[in-house]
Amino acid sequence: MSTLSRPIPSAGPFPAPAEQRDAPASEASAPLEASLPSRGIRRTAAIAALVGVAGIFGVDSSYRSSRSQEYEATWGSLSMPAFTPQDLTPGVMSKTFAQSLLEQRERYAARMDFLSGLSQETDRLSEKISALEKNRSGIHEISAIQQETDRIRTILRPASSAPLISSAELSAQFEATHGDVVSYAKELFHRVTGKQVPSSVVFTDSQLRTDRGGEIENFSQNVRYTKGEYAANLRTILHELGHAVYLGSETNESGWVPFGLGASTRNSMLLEECAAELFYLAAASYIEDPLLRKETGPLDSERIQDWLTGAPDTSHHHNEGFSLSDAYLELAGGNASAAYRMATASTSIDPRALAIVERNREMLRTGLSPTEMSERMLAAHSQLLKTVDALAERTSALTRTQALSKADGDK
């Protein structure tokens, strides 16, 4: 039923108009429909409403078309892009999610074996302490146990070889070395594409939502980011420039597209997110500072893992797009520039990439995830440290007891 032909709700708590209160009983009891506009008038009103909505859509479509043309004049189109990542220097390759996962599992197995060995040592020390607690003798043996306990504790709590640097200090160090983050992002853009960032692009330090590190407004040239740590901002800006290079069209918070009609098809959104992340990787490969390269980081494995494992709040296309970028990276042998070109060669997702995503999902389903491995190692480490601390307390108690016994014997 059309909303225009639905019966009008009852007046509820509000009093009826005076005319209706004073009307004869026969008029007051007349059907409500008699007081409504005629069917023809209602039909005319409905048509007018539809025409009005169509007009809004038409204006919006015209505006978007105009903005799109301006955008393409700067960035090109998918078929004729103005910017493309160049081939990387030989040897500069990025690790894929599967490679990192397999390496993590190898390290996890080795670490758990090592902790298991230490646990067996603490069991033997505990047995020796129990024997001494019964005999109340063997001061020299207690000293040896204390030394072993201290050795294990040192392994579990290694002394820091260098003072920790705060994120603010690290950011200041990066800025002193590479200049402000926008200028350095422009430099990396030039190195990866061979061209300068278009002069029409504006970089704005904005206070975005906490879950949005940055964005590029729909068919505009405004890259917005929330100023914070240098490495994180560098990654964000390069990623957003990657959206622009791909001819960015994802829905955002700029507000000029009514009702979110800027959203493109699901595949194109995923490919755009995929391309933006691959562009970042290609640009980041030109970072020569090893510490900054480490801080900016490779592909976001945590977000890929969240998508693959179906963690809560992963329906957003970002995480799925990241998992797709990893698949193209694997197809390209770790070469981010080549992966970018593969991902942007067609508006359809390569079936081989989808197969890699599903294989990665199966890898997580049949084995421990990075998060699970980290949690288990932390739990085993913490438990062992508690055991060692308890052993140290027991040996100290034995030492005090024997000292008191010796003092009583000397009296």
Topology:
Elements: H1 18-22, H2 25-28, H3 39-75, H4 97-135, H5 139-156, H6 167-178, H7 181-193, E1 202-205, E2 214-216, E3 222-225, H8 230-245, H9 266-284, H10 290-296, H11 301-309, H12 317-331, H13 336-343, H14 351-365, H15 370-410
Parallel strand pairs: 1-3
Antiparallel strand pairs: 2-3
Helix pairs in contact: 4-5, 4-15, 5-15, 7-8, 8-9, 8-10, 9-12, 9-13, 11-12, 12-13, 12-14
User: What's the Cα radius of gyration?
Assistant: 34 Å
Strand content: under 5%
Q: What gap, in angstroms, lies between the N and C termini?
A: 105 Å
| Largest sheet, spatial ordering of strands | 1-3-2
Principal-axes shape call: elongated
What pattern of helices and strands is seen along the backbone?
Answer: HHHHHHHEEEHHHHHHHH
Please describe the biggest sheet, giving its number of strands, its sense, and whether it closes into a barrel: 3 strands, mixed
Helix/strand-derived category reads mainly alpha
Count of strand segments: 3
Query: What is the share of helical residues?
Result: 55-70%
How many helix segments? Answer: 15
Poorly predicted tracts of residues: 1-36, 251-263
What value does the average pLDDT take?
Answer: 78
